[in-house]
Specification:
alpha+beta; 3-stranded antiparallel β-sheet; about 45% helix; 2 domains
Length: about 210
Amino acid sequence: GMMPTHAEWRRLTDELAERGIHLLADEVYRFLEFDAADRLTAGADAIDRGVSLGVMSKSFALAGLRIGWLASRDRDLLARCAAFKDYTTICSSAPAEILALIGLRARDRVLARSRRIVEANLPLLDRFFADHADRWTWVRPRGGSIGFPRLLGDETADAFVARLVEAEGVLLLPGSVIGHDGNHVRIGFGREDLPTALAGLEQFMTEA
């Protein structure tokens, strides 16, 4: 859920443009900013060598389609990426591409649903971590549907999540899986069943 400020983004893009360095902007959670005023200029629009990465999962919640894209004004780079893709997947599923187009054409309705879910779930997480401030630290995300709270105490996040999934069927991802050793866990809140998952987590912590 971390997002640079507009000033930080401008400093970064100005520096990259001056040095002729490519920018790869991971924008898979674009349009899920909790304050639309925080939305940054797309990487592809920010500098000539900027590249924006987008997908139909995450913000659009259409992960099953397995469709994504790169956008850039650097036509040579895009041509090289397309040539490389010919050696991997060659082309996507035609039905998936059609469904992706339908989703993009209905983007206002699709994104409104995603925003409704995360905006309803975020206060639940705020309340949960406030109630358990002796066990967790929580930095409220500024966008997206992922949080990264830190587990306090002597137990490792790896051990905690392993016990949790066995006891309650609630799955959290320990930070170690993504190379972060700060005893954090990755928690998603982009699904409507988050209250059920939080109830399981609450039960587990009560009994632990």
